[in-house]
Amino acid sequence: MYFAIRSCGQDAPKTKAFYESTSFEQYKAVNEKFADAIVKEYKKGDVVWVNDYHLLLVPQMVRAKLPDATIGFFLHVAFPSSEIFRCLAVRESLLRGMLGADVVGFQTHSYARHFRQTVSRILTLEALPGGIDLGSSLCEVAIFPIGIDVRALSEKRRDPMVKEWVDVLKERYAGMKMIVGRDKLDEVQGVRQKLLAFEAFLEKYTEFQGKVVLIQVALSTTEENESQVAVFDVVSRINSRFSTLTYQPIVFLHTQDLTFSQYLALLTVADAFFVASLREGMALRTHEFVECQEGKKRPSPLILIV
């Protein structure tokens, strides 16, 4: 689903070619392995819970072998509109795979609405406010927005190491405004667009050159894409254009480069947290930022562009 949405949004012909190749057959084979493993371990009364776009076909595969099983499916990423989803060559197979579940969960009302409309328009099934009428049964469609463990995060913030790093960061970037971001290095996270916006800001408001820094934390991704190279190129260009002997506008870090205590310290001292995702399931890092701003007299703003 994740790569399907990305390809549909930017290059539908490539999407069709992708799914007509052996790639979809490999995707089906992987789903079959998971389904077989579930059936092998299943005991009467068990609840089967399938997660995310990697396993869209599993609910129907399990249903075919265990017709009375209770099956739930939750999609962590965004579900596109029917106009986008219909570009997929295997659209019906993916939808029927999901409809094998008793309940299909989404992060937001809009994603659930997109799913109901897509099923109605592509499979011509009746979409009800609470789910999809399959004739002999109802596949419930529900919203289950995920969140963070606020209590655990609050306790971690009181760690002396976090306080120590807060002091270090305040001293290191004294007199400067600090913008923080944390994203996966793939196309839908909009990291390149964020960097270009920051570059345009420095060009237009020259008085902020040398006075604002963007600290971008990058999460590794297993997806092969050209976005990582494009991001590195933009970072290099911006730093070469605006850096001085004592100033570097972008500090680019990978998650393995800093501890969780350092990350929480960044969120605590940040003057702004910047998210520019093109499509997002649920940006939990924004929740973490808001929690880390708790207790401040004037909490820093969250810049959320989606």
TrEMBL record:
One of its GO terms (molecular function) is alpha,alpha-trehalose-phosphate synthase (UDP-forming) activity. It is an enzyme of class 2 (transferase). Keywords: Glycosyltransferase, Transferase. One of its GO terms (cellular component) is cytosol. One of its GO terms (biological process) is trehalose biosynthetic process. Its EC number is 2.4.1.15. InterPro entries: Glyco_trans_20 (IPR001830). This is Alpha,alpha-trehalose-phosphate synthase (UDP-forming). It comes from Thanatephorus cucumeris (strain AG1-IB / isolate 7/3/14) (Lettuce bottom rot fungus).
